[in-house]
Structure formats: structure tokens, C-alpha cells
Design a protein that fits this description.
Layout lengths: L16 E5 L3 H9 L8 E7 H17 L4 E6 L8 H13 L6 E7 L1 H13 L6 E5 L2 H7 L4 E4 L8 E4 L4 E5 L8 H18 L1 H10 L15 H20 L15 H10 L6 H18 L5 H14 L11 H9 L10 E3 L16 E3 L2 H9 L3
Parallel strand pairs: 1-8, 2-3, 2-4, 4-5, 5-8
Antiparallel strand pairs: 6-7, 9-10
Helix pairs in contact: 5-6, 5-8, 6-7, 6-8, 6-10, 6-11, 9-10, 9-12, 10-11, 10-13
The structure holds nicotinamide-adenine-dinucleotide (NAD).
């Protein structure tokens, strides 16, 4: 039988801008009328019900005023709605409303919205463009960079999805003022993680300025916009540097797991009573302790990180009453564990990461060592 080879080598330019500022609808609208999505005639604003109320209606009115054809598609807020079912329901609504290949998506909200809406955009009509308008500190810090989109299943989180890069990301730091303190802490946990893994001077900046996030009050006093802008920019730069060095998650990207090996294991064990940020904070503190035991980080640097997490109001102790064996068993089921080994990434001091044999950023840690460090509590 003859064989025909289909040559499919592609050079793709997926570059996009991330704009950081306050109240960015004023730049989003001119971007849209100016051709951010060439050939697109209809926009779908995908958001959750909280953000719809806070910002969605205002955006829709502005889009209509600018003469753009747009509708809003919202779903109940929360991780438990980041599912295939929610995606399918929105897809059906889009089809009912006549959306097709000449459409684009605006993901307005936090990481749940950008993950779900980005995934939907990546598969709808075999892929339509999307933009992210990030309204949480966590989405700004983490979810809007890297092009990873996904939904959860009852068994595993973020397992069904694809890489689909947005055309532009807007980080509206003014919208952080309506976040709850718990959501701010969630974002700050990932922010501290970024500083620890990649930028000592940013860590020092956080030591000097993190109280700006605690300064919000009922009378509408806002987070200092300069601090917010610096935090957003440094987060983007650190995450971008990691992702650009390893777009498809071969090695370097593992450093983003700092604090997550234990953190992810704790979330289900604590029946999701710990927020993701709280779990990551406990994981960061544990990794420091383990790293100190293994000689990767000194006591002075460890104390500085612990102090910063404490000031933010993040926990460092394991939830009471959790048997160490269950924690270790849960870490073994992590989707990132390999060949039955629990692998960790470690800080090398503050702002740098350890490298191991063959240049790997992670190393296996025997269960016995994990158990003995888990048994000592902070
Ligand atoms: N794709 C990635 O690379 C990546 C990276 C990190 C996290 N994530 C994902 O991000 C999600 C977590 O992100 P998140 O914390 O932004 O979750 P989220 O989108 O659920 O937002 C948290 C809560 O804040 C509300 N909210 C959003 N913006 C608001 C605002 N400005 N004011 C008041 N309330 C507001 C939301 O309605 C929600 O209730 C997880 O699903 C996680 O898997 C993805």
C-alpha cells in the first residue's frame, strides 16, 4: 500500500499582551472595536453569577453602546461548577442563540471562569478566540498566564482541558477591592509562592508592602493601586518566565508546584474546608521544613517566609487530627506523582529553586522522611 506523508510542521505565534490597570473596560472596548478578534461578529461574555452582578451587566451595557453584538452567559459561582456539565450547558445556550465560528469569548471573572471559558473557546466550533478579563488576585497571579484551560471531574481536578492561549489578558486591579479577605489571602498565597521560587527582591517588596492588602475597610478605602500594580506585574513576570521556559510542562514548570504537593493532598482530606491558598500555605511551610532538613534552605530564610505567611493570616499547621499515613497516601494519589514516588520541588533559599540529578527540578522523597517531618508541627 502506498504511504502518503502529511507534513504538518507549524510555527505558531501565540503571543499576547497582558494589560494591568484599573477599570480596564475603557481599553477593552476600543480593543474590540479596533480588531482584537479579526473576523468576529458576535461576542459571548462568560462569567459567574457573582461577577455578572458586580461587573458583567456594566460590561454588557458598554459593549451594546459601542455597537458590538454581545450576550452574557453565566453559571453559579464556585469550583464545583467548573465541570463538563456547565461547559455543555453554555455550549447549548450558545448554539441556541446562533453562535458559530465567527464568535469570540470574553472570560470575565476569576480562575474558575477563565479555565472553563478558555476550554469552551478552545473546542467550540473547533476553536474560537478568547480574551480574559481577570477579576481576582488569584487569576491575575496564576490562572491567566500559561494557556492551560480545563474543567474538573468528580475524581480529578483540571484533568479535562487543553492549551488555548488568549488573545489578550486584562488584569483589573481595582476589581480586587470587592474580593473577600479570604479570596485576597488565596491570591497572596500564590504570590508568596512566586516570590519564593523566582524573585528575592519581590519577596522583600512583599515584606514591605503586604499590609496594603489588609488596609481595605467598609468605608471603601482601596488597596494602594501602586502596590496592586507591582504585585500583578511581578506575578506575571515570574510565571511567564517559568511557562515560557517550558510551555508543555516537561521540567521547569514543575517549580510552580512549590507548596502544592502537600497542599493538594490536604484539600480533599480536609473535605475542602481549607481554601486552596490555605492548603498551599501549609504546603509551603512544610516544604521549607523538609528543605531545611535536607540542607536546601537555611533557618533565616525559612523564618522570613513563615513570618510573611503569618502576617497575611495564612495557616502553616496541619489540620488537627489528620493521621500522617493518610496524608502520605493522599500524596501518592497525586496526578503529578510518578512511579509510586512522591516528588517535591524545593526552594534554594528565597527566590531560587533547587536542581537535582540530570537537571530535574523535583526529587523523590521517601515516605519515612516525609512522615518524620510531618510529625513535627509548626
Ligand atoms: N489555568 C491555570 O493555569 C490556573 C492556575 C491557577 C489556578 N487555576 C484555577 O483557578 C481557580 C481559582 O481561581 P479563583 O480563586 O479566581 O476562583 P473563582 O473564579 O471561583 O473566584 C473566587 C470567588 O470570587 C468571586 N469573584 C470573582 N471576582 C470577584 C470580584 N472582583 N469581587 C468579588 N468577588 C469576585 C467569584 O464569583 C468566586 O466566588 C481554580 O479552579 C484553579 O484550578 C488555574
Amino acid at each position: 500500500m502506498p504511504t502518503f506523508r502529511v507534513p504538518l510542521k507549524a510555527t505558531i505565534d501565540d503571543s499576547y499582551d497582558i494589560e494591568i490597570g484599573e477599570r480596564l473596560f475603557d481599553t477593552l472596548i476600543p480593543d474590540l472595536t479596533g480588531g482584537l478578534f479579526p473576523g468576529v461578529h458576535r461576542l459571548a461574555v462568560i462569567t459567574d453569577r457573582n461577577v455578572e452582578e458586580l461587573y458583567g451587566r456594566e460590561l454588557l451595557a458598554l459593549l451594546e453602546r459601542a455597537g458590538l453584538a454581545a450576550s452574557m452567559f453565566s453559571f453559579p459561582a464556585g469550583e464545583r461548577y467548573k465541570t463538563r456539565e456547565t461547559k455543555a450547558a453554555i455550549e447549548d445556550s450558545l448554539l441556541d442563540a446562533g453562535y458559530g465560528r465567527d464568535s469570540a469569548v470574553i472570560a470575565l471573572g476569576g480562575g474558575v471562569v477563565s479555565d472553563l471559558a478558555g476550554f469552551l473557546a478552545g473546542t467550540f466550533a473547533r476553536g474560537i478566540p478568547f480574551a480574559v478579563y481577570a477579576t481576582t488576585l488569584l487569576a491575575a497571579a496564576d490562572a491567566s498566564i500559561g494557556g492551560k484551560t480545563a474543567v474538573d471531574t468528580p475524581r480529578v481536578t483540571n484533568i479535562i482541558g487543553l492549551f488555548h492561549q488568549p488573545k489578550k489578558v486584562y488584569i483589573d486591579t481595582h476589581s480586587w477591592n470587592t474580593l473577600t479577605d479570604a479570596e485576597i489571602r488565596n491570591g497572596l498565597a500564590e504570590t508568596v509562592k512566586h516570590a519564593c521560587l523566582g524573585d528575592r527582591s519581590f519577596f522583600e517588596y512583599l515584606e514591605g508592602h503586604v499590609d496594603a492588602f489588609a488596609g481595605r475597610d467598609q468605608n471603601g478605602r482601596a488597596i494602594d493601586p501602586e502596590v496592586a500594580a507591582r504585585v500583578a506585574a511581578s506575578n506575571c513576570m515570574i510565571k511567564h518566565k517559568v511557562v515560557a521556559g517550558d510551555v508543555r510542562e516537561k521540567n521547569l514548570r514543575q517549580v510552580l508546584n512549590l507548596g502544592h504537593t502537600l497542599g493538594r493532598a490536604l484539600e480533599p482530606l480536609a473535605n475542602y474546608t481549607l481554601s486552596h491558598g490555605e492548603a498551599v500555605s501549609i504546603g509551603l511551610a512544610f516544604q521549607l521544613k523538609l528543605g531545611e532538613r535536607l540542607g536546601y534552605v537555611g533557618a533565616a530564610d525559612r523564618d522570613r517566609v513563615v513570618k510573611l505567611l503569618e502576617r497575611i493570616g495564612l495557616p502553616m499547621s496541619l489540620p488537627a487530627g489528620l493521621p500522617v499515613e493518610r496524608i502520605i497516601a493522599s500524596m501518592h494519589t497525586d496526578k503529578k506523582s510518578r512511579r509510586g514516588e512522591i516528588r517535591f520541588v524545593f526552594q534554594k533559599g528565597i527566590g531560587d529553586m533547587m536542581r537535582f540529578e540530570g537537571g530535574a527540578y523535583s526529587r523523590p522523597v521517601p515516605d519515612g522522611v516525609l512522615a518524620s517531618v510531618l510529625e513535627e508541627s509548626y
